[in-house]
Amino acid sequence: MLTSVRAGGGSDLVLAHGVGSRQDLPLPFSYALTGAVLALAVSFGVLAFKWRTSKLSGADSGRTLAGALGEFADSPELRWLLRLFGLAVSAFVGWALLAGPDLAKNPAPYFIYVLFWVGLVPASLIFGPIWRLLNPLRTAHLLICKVLRIDPDDPPFEMPRWLGHWPAAIGLASFVWLELCAKNRDSTGTLTTYVSLYAGANLLGAMAYGRRWFAQCDGFEVFSATIGRLSVLGRRSDGAVVLRNPLNNLDATPQLPGLVAVLGVMLGSTAFDSFTSTTWWYNRTYDSSLSPQTLASIALVLSIGAVTTAFCIAAWLAGVLSRRGAPGTATAFAHSLVPIAVGYLIAHYFSLFLFADQQAIVYASDPMVDGSNIFGTAQWDVNYTFITVGQIATVQVVSIVTGHVLGVFSAHDRSVRLFPA
User: Fold this and answer.
1) Contacts of 28 by beta carbon, 8 Å cutoff, 6+ apart
2) Domain boundaries defined on the chain
3) Per-residue confidence at 28, pLDDT binned at 50, 70, 90?
4) Closest alpha carbon to 85 in 44, 23, 164, 139
5) What is the DSSP-derived secondary structure letter of residue 334?
């Protein structure tokens, strides 16, 4: 939720919570839900008769980017340019956190909660696993290895298979708890503590298990890479950067332990944020003897657990009824949750991103809140009129329906492959 406060009568966005998608819809949420259910029913019926064999080829598919564009897209120069950009932005945010005042106009919370967390969704949809190229922790790890003369690909320990994405799921859960439940979550002290602990834990993991740790266990890299499975950009099994059907990209999702937990965090936290924006929740919080933070933390755990458990039970039933067996079925179908999770993320955060990112650009010019105008944007105003409520609602409904339909497509193709009978 965004609140508006300014002493002079204007409006500044003050980051307090995520935006609940239901509150932005000018039509009843039940109508949007009914439309999604109808779209699912129709698509499922059509697929049952028209899609009888597997049509997706996963990592083996794709058309190579031709000529100079293909060379540039996978060039060391572009990689280092993106590394340096990631370091520069991170250094700016770190400066604002450590040296800037703990005031609402400090840009650091906006950079972390809006430009980074929310912005990773559209950026990954367009460019694929973009955070892998921007991640400042990867660069810091590489520099540490060079100073210590250690091979980043020859770590002292071998990463166990069972570890999978579990550290990433825990890391993501810690961040959504910070965003949605923690007290003083937009204060510089709270954010500095969290960033320091998160960075330290991942650097230690990388020093122990090599830079493979980031791709598999860094929550934000896994978050970006998972969403990036819906991009038209991908990497073929031979290593080439290619253009391909996003459903083939999705089909190539590695089936690692903990993948279901990652998607459970993505879906469960979004459901929790919408639920806790309702009047019913506010009334229960007001009447409870527990603190709002404690209640929210319990509800967040229950929401993530409920989503994850429901999917695992459905997958278990599919495995049992198909006589294939239950073990591994949930992980095999976890990729079909990606478009659904992304659809809800877009619907949930769309209006926040449209308006709060403008405020971030305004505040970025004056990180010390001392009247500076570093980038010439300090006097800009947030434009609330360039998009209507109806247009926002259209994007939200389309994203939810499309996400569910793509989820059905990907699950159906995997079904006819694993359960041909």
Assistant:
1) none
2) 2-418
3) low
4) 139
5) G
Question: b/e for 357-393, b at 16 or more Cβ within 10 A?
Answer: bbbbbbbbbbbebeeeeeeeebeeebeeeeeeeeebb
DSSP assignment of 25-49: -SS-HHHHHHHHHHHHHHHHHHHHH
Q: For residue 149, what are its two tokens?
A: 């003369």
CA–CA dist 293, 133 (Å, integer): 35
Residue 235, SS3?
Answer: strand
Q: How far apart are CA 229 and CA 126, in angstroms?
A: 10
- Which token pair is 148? 């210590």
pLDDT confidence bin for 1, thresholds 50/70/90? very low
Length of the chain: 421
In degrees, rounded to 5, the angle at the alpha carbon of residue 199 between the alpha carbons of residues 196 and 204 is 120
pTM of the full structure: 0.89
Asked if residue 108 lies in contact with residue 188, where contact means CB atoms within 8 angstroms, the answer is: yes
For residues 80 and 179, give the distance between their C-alpha atoms in angstroms, rounded to a whole number.
31
Closest CA to 64 of 299, 211, 243, 191: 243
Q: What is the 3-state secondary structure (H, E, C) of 380-402?
A: CCCCCCCCCHHHHHHHHHHHHHH
CA 349, 397, 317: angle at the middle one, nearest 5?
A: 95
pLDDT in tens, 212-262: 999 999 999 999 999 999 999 888 888 888 888 899 999 999 999 999 999
Provide the sign of the torsion angle of the four alpha carbons 82, 87, 88, 90, taken in this order: positive
- The C-alpha atoms of residue 342 and residue 352 are separated, in whole angstroms, by 15
What CA–CA distance (Å, rounded) separates 67 from 71?
Answer: 7
Helix (H, G, I), strand (E, B) or coil at 270: helix
Q: Tell which residue, 260, 264, 285, has the closest CA to residue 275.
A: 285
pLDDT band of residue 421 (cuts 50, 70, 90) is low
Contact 295, 377 (CB under 8 A): no
Radius of gyration (Cα) for the chain, nearest Å?
22
Six token digits for residue 94: 């770190």
313 residue type, one letter: I
Tokens standing for 146? 């060079």
Angle subtended by helix axes 136-148 and 188-209, to nearest 10: 50
Write out pLDDT tens, residues 316-359.
Answer: 888 888 777 667 889 999 999 999 999 989 988 888 898 999 99
The one-character DSSP state at 19 is P
**CB contact at 8 A, 414 and 335:** yes
